[in-house]
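Archive entry: two folds, one per protein. Generate the first.
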Amino acid sequence: MVRECNACGRESSGLKRCSGCHKVWYCSVTCQKSDWVPHIFECKPRRPITTADHLALAVRNNLLPQDTQTCEDYGFARAFTAEKRSKLLGLYIGLMSSVFIGIPSKTIHDWRVKGVLVEEIKAAYYKIPAESRGEYFPWFLQNQHILDPSTTADQSNNEGDAMVLHAWRFTGGAETDSPADIKAQINSMSEDKQSCHLFYTFLLSKWHPAPFHDLWIPFGFCSCASEEEEMYLGGQYQVLITKCTFNEFYDAFCSARILDLFHKNGIDVNVRYLADVLQNHNMHKSVWDLKQFVLQTHEQNPEGRMVNSVACDYGFMNCKKGAEIQALKKVYRTFFERYDADPLMLHDAAIRGNIFGYMGSLMKLNRKYERLMKNPYPLPVLD
């Protein structure tokens, strides 16, 4: 039978099947190795997938990592500006790309686990001629704190203070206010106003809230279908704050008129479920809390905290042991990662007490989930 190589696209009847997943075919060992970086996420590898594998995929695609733990492990979470994150990615491209130094992801992972990532990166670059090291390695030598947590405290505090100061002045704060004055005035603000100011700090640093952050739901990022869509929404917010005053933004946030503010300033925002989330930031559907809970990694939520509505509405209260919680969490995460996921349909299924029926129409589920997905709904109608 004629098949297509999963790497180069060549068609042949003599291709060899992947021994891990038995689903894809290759015309040579070279093609199989070249395709391993993306294929590992679809295959059944003989070792656990690590954050270094996510980093390798980012390098392969020339895109910033989307996995939040990868960003934490490899410094992107401590690179506070878009420029620094771009340069850090450039450093890793030079380090890991097969056309440059070519260090494999397993080796990168081992370096990080052993606590020698910084030193090994320097050693790898020093092995090649100075004229071949590019512009990112010299930058890295001046910014090693991004990868070495033991040296980040003062630097991070300084950069964090600079970000807050930038946001303070951008929102109309006095140039003469000291860091202590700024902190005191921010702390005296209402909770909603503090949230808006912190959000400005994110936006002015070319960043946006991640699923583990409290601002992820109130400003609608939970409605995005992917990290790319979150970046798009963050970009639209960055445009908006240059066209309105901070008080206008704050008033719109408090009165659930953020979308009106976008439209008033001629900014189109095409995010399917954004209007549902922004209609009331103090009272949103529990499905958005569910999405936030299941997308968080163990490192981001080691105690497994969840709001009561998630436990009640989506069946976690039925779990008798940690393994069941993790299994149920994985099923919901798989749902949210689907291109055709409709969170509002899932919410409606929960209200009707038919989560298992709805989820089962989209994916194959073990019968055990019928018990786990039970909830108290639909509520009885009172006379």
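Generate the second and append.
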Amino acid sequence: MASLSFIIGIIGNLISILVFASPIKTFWKVVQKKSTENYKAVPYITTLLSTSLWTFYGLLKPGGLLVATVNGAGTILQLIYVILFIIYAPKDKKIKTAKLVALLDVGFVGAVIVVTLFAMHGSNLRLTFVGIACAGLTIGMYASPLSAMGTVIKTKSVEYMPFLLSFFLFLNGGVWSVYSALVKDIYIGVPNVIGFGLGSAQLILYAIYKKKPASAKSTRDSMEEEEEGSAHLVKKGNIEMSSLNEDEEANSKNWTLNKGKSLTKPGVHRQKSLQKMEKTLSLGPYDLQHYY
């Protein structure tokens, strides 16, 4: 019959696989859009570093098959994510990502493996050295959502802290904490106890602020109403200005007509003099003699 630690380890493997597989949806979008947009490569690079070292630790540790298998699967998934990121990232980000991968996931991991195998003697010393490195990296991985937690407290919204990821990190830390207690492995236990605590804090924040986005929505609605009100005032102002312009044009026309009407008409005597002058100019020499 399988031991309790083995059963807990299997459950831990399943939960860890779900955590490692959570970015699949993100990278599916990256492949479809052929762009990494504003995504960062650092989380995937550091997780690749962590899973690589934990795989090495599981291979060194007697009875560490479950640790080696789950982290081996995580290493493969993280490597795929990093490769896709390098393929679809802009040129400048592509170069920076490649350099970081070469430094951490190749250089650092290679250095740890070489030092462990060739500079250290005895299985206990090797496990201690690699275990401390793995525990430190795992604590860093669990602590990475702290910035998201700070954002939640500031904005009073859980928009930037996905529930499922927080929930699976909580479960992952809890299950591996139980496993570490059963197999008496401090290097697995310490970081996962810390991760369990941080995961619990995230879920508590989610429960407190999960209904707070409504305030943000109301703020956006009020801003939209203000914009609509401004647009209405501008429109109303334009209508009033156009009506004023029309009134001014009408007044101008009326003033012109009234001016034309108010001009002094020539007198009757002046009109007869003008008619006589026109008639005189139209007569020839012969007609002028008879006319006068």
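Annotation attached to the second fold: The CA atoms of residues 112 and 238 lie 73 Å apart. The first helix runs from residue 4 to 21.
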